[in-house]
Amino acid sequence: MNQPLAYIHPGAKIAKNVVIEPFTTIYNNVTIGEGTWIGSNVTIMEGARIGKNCSIFPGAVISAVPQDLKYDDEDTLTVIGNNVTIRECVTINRGTTDRMKTVIGDNCLIMAYCHVAHDCIVGNNAIFSNNSTLAGHVTIGDNVILAGMTAVHQFCSVGKHAFVTGGTLVRKDVPPFVKAGREPISYVGINSVGLRRRGFTTEKIREIQDVFRILYQKNYNTSQASQIIEAEMEATTERDEILQFIKNSHRGIMKGYFKSN
Q1: For a disulfide at 78, which of 11, 63, 186, 243, Cβ 3.0-4.6 Å?
Q2: Are 155 and 173 in contact (CB under 8 A)?
Q3: C-alpha to C-alpha distance for 9 and 6, rounded to whole angstroms
């Protein structure tokens, strides 16, 4: 159901049962999947690909051009999955030539006033609380929670199942399965509550704790700890995921609390 007071470009592809409220503007080269609700005063610009059963609340701006002086009007995208809720005044910019797209996975909740910059890749089931901000080229894993007013530096990565406490400045990569906080950002434990909610067994949580005990509580450097973990701990999906994350980290992982400044 499209309101007569909304503007929809003839080139936009809108599923039949999408609801678009008054005073919303939808540009050319936009696709919106069935069952999605678009609130009033939303702006959806060129290159948006929005999935099924999403809710986009008033004041959001989706797929605006990147706030990047190197951007030269490339034909890039913003890809938003299914069952995503985007609250009031959220801004999500489309990609540049680096990744050619900004991606939000399925079943995400992005609360009011959050910003997702160009070339960010966000996994499934992520929750960003109010005013959280991702700079460009950030990668966020599945099931990550960013508490309110978290700010993530460009090119940083946050591993899956991680929880970042409110007001944290994320200048280093955050490994999977952990809680992160303090200033400067550091390890504050395993995200055991989140892991239990997602079906991790007590034994599996202990195994993950053992990995991070070596990494963060034995006064080894990152290379030494990684070698010990690989040599002494049984290979499991979670152990290998942590080691691979450390290996792939370009900005370096955050420190443990014994090494904070």
Answers
A1: 63
A2: no
A3: 10
Give 108-135 pLDDT, tens digit per residue.
Answer: 999 999 999 999 999 999 999 999 999 9
CA 231 to each of CA 99, 156, 166, 241, 244: distance values in angstroms, whole numbers, following the listed order:
35, 28, 36, 15, 14
| Residue numbers annotated as active site | 118-119, 136
Hey, what amino acid is at 187?
Y
The CATH class given to the 196-259 domain equals mainly alpha
Residue spans per domain, the chain? 7-137, 196-259
Paired strand residues for 68: none
Q: Which CATH superfamily is domain 7-137 in?
A: Hexapeptide repeat proteins (2.160.10.10)
Paired residues of 101 in beta bridges: 77
Residue-wise pLDDT tens digits, 23-63:
999 999 999 999 999 999 999 999 999 999 999 999 999 99
Dihedral, 212, 189, 112, 126 alpha carbons, nearest 10: 40
C-alpha distances out from residue 129 to 30, 70, 114, 116, Å: 27, 29, 8, 12
Question: 246 and 176 in contact (C-beta within 8 Å)?
Answer: no
pTM of the model: 0.95
Any idea which residue has 């605006």 for tokens? Answer: 64
Of the CA atoms within 13 Å of residue 124, those in its CB half-sphere come to 6
Q: Confidence class of residue 2 from pLDDT cuts 50, 70 and 90?
A: low
d(CA 190, CA 110): 23
Task: Give tens-digit pLDDT for 156-200.
Answer: 999 999 999 999 999 999 999 999 999 999 999 999 999 999 999
